[in-house]
Amino acid sequence: MTERSIAYGTFVIEKYLAAPPAAVFAAWADVDRKAQWFGAPGGDNRPKEFDFRVGGREYSEGPAGAASFTFDVRYQDIIENERIVYTYEMTMNGARISVSLASVELRPESGGTRLLLTEHGAYLDGLDTNEQRREGTIWLVDQLDAFLKRQAAA
Question: What gap in Å lies between CA 19 and CA 143, rounded to an integer?
Fold first, then answer.
């Protein structure tokens, strides 16, 4: 029998992005833009479902290394160019590994945006940890930053 457990964790990622809040918001809100930075490296990052509105769902699935993951989101609150609040669950090889509440705040600062991403997670049965999720989210925010820089240079 599998031993069941829940580990809780919270982290905050703060980063200055040299793009205005409207550009950062659009990178989250537009499926074509989001597919260019959000997801596994080298994979097909276009979500299977993308309904960016309060109550809407985003759903992605696919391999990352030897594992297969799903990312199932419900958008709880959206204020254009200011904030996005969503809940999501993740599975790995069919087993639920976490349930999280995340918020993205976009604050104008010095011609760019101060991004604050806060996540509260329940990590299930030892299959994921707060530190692993934090590291993965830092990687995603860095991918967002690189995408915005590519857009500005184009």
Answer: 14
The first and second tokens of residue 114, run together, are 């101060």
**CATH, residue 55:** 3.30.530.20
Taking only the tens place, the pLDDT of each residue in 63-107 is 877 889 999 999 999 999 999 999 999 999 999 999 999 999 999
Number of domains in the chain: 1
pTM: 0.94
Which residues fall within 8 angstroms of residue 122, CB to CB, at 6 or more apart?
6, 7, 8, 98, 99, 100
Q: State both tokens at 9.
A: 């964790």
Q: Which two tokens stand for residue 150?
A: 């590519």
CA-based nearest residue to 82, from 102, 57, 108, 100: 108
Which residue is it, tokens 């992605």? 60
Report yes or no on 130 lying in a domain: yes
Question: Residue 48's domain spans which residues?
Answer: 6-153
